[in-house]
Amino acid sequence: MSILSVRQLDIMGKQNHIVKDLSLDVQEGEWFALVGQSGSGKSMTAMAICQLLAPNLQAKGEIWYGEKNLLTLSSSEIRKVRGKRLAYIFQDYQGSFTPFLTIGQHFDEYQRTHLNLSKKARRQQAVDALISVGLNEDIYGRYPFQLSGGQLQRVSISMALLLEPDILIADEPTTALDSVSSFKVLQLLSKLQKETGCAILFITHDLRHVRKYADRIAVMKDGAIIETGDKNQVLNHPQHAYTNELIQSSPSLRRIPFKLEGVSG
Ligand SMILES: Nc1ncnc2c1ncn2[C@@H]1O[C@H](COP(=O)(O)OP(=O)(O)OP(=O)(O)O)[C@@H](O)[C@H]1O
């Protein structure tokens, strides 16, 4: 069953038509990859779904989440959906953290917005979430600048999954990480997805990740989806010359350190 349906989405700036007549469906519990070169409109699609587009951009079309067309919700209604049922993590995880607040304070702010829990219960829930992504309890009291990129991105994931969303939008979550940290973050996402059953809309230009984790793929070029289907179908039998080009230009799969285990560190 479809959990998110985007129908005929157009995103326009004053001078440019960024996303053109885009339709896609994310099924319950699946890992759906949106791939394409830099500038093809992947992030703007994610931003439109989360209703976080810059004010100079306008989105038209329909974005159905259950019975709700997200594009028609008021900002207070969308805030209720965003974060709770529909969570997101972005490549710029540094920008998601306020430098003078501890990780615990970030959790607390988030929990107080969405949950009605005592202070003690909030702390326990946050610590459990940190432990679930392979981090230690002491991270709770630390400031963002005291953590590595991989640790911070894992904190983002633990916060995004805290409220057990139905869908997680992950926009190039490993772009700013080294290859070992990327590998661990993706392994973690895959593990948590299996545990929680949430769907993932995964945005990337790295086909190696797609080959390993995705169920289905949509390929974007110049703001439009040019090909979509089952991962193996698209990667092994691309119908579009551009998809073939993307596959040919992708680094070898052998470069992923498959043998690494665990998510700690
Ligand atoms: N606020 C804005 N106003 C006008 N155009 C914008 C704005 N933000 C982004 N764009 C343009 O939208 C296009 C698509 O950008 P987008 O970030 O979605 O690409 P992308 O496929 O996610 O690329 P990348 O993989 O590099 O993140 C780009 O040409 C970009 O310059």
UniProtKB/TrEMBL annotation:
SUPFAM superfamilies: P-loop containing nucleoside triphosphate hydrolases. Keywords: ATP-binding, Cell inner membrane, Cell membrane, Membrane, Nucleotide-binding, Translocase, Transport. The keyword Transport applies. GO terms for molecular function: ATP binding; ATP hydrolysis activity. PROSITE patterns: ABC_TRANSPORTER_1, ABC_TRANSPORTER_2. It is found in: Cell membrane. Residues 4-247 form the ABC transporter domain. One of its GO terms (cellular component) is plasma membrane. InterPro entries: AAA+_ATPase, ABC_Ni/Peptide_Import, ABC_transporter-like_ATP-bd, ABC_transporter-like_CS, P-loop_NTPase. Pfam families: ABC_tran (PF00005). It is a peripheral membrane protein. Belongs to the ABC transporter superfamily. This is ABC transporter ATP-binding protein.
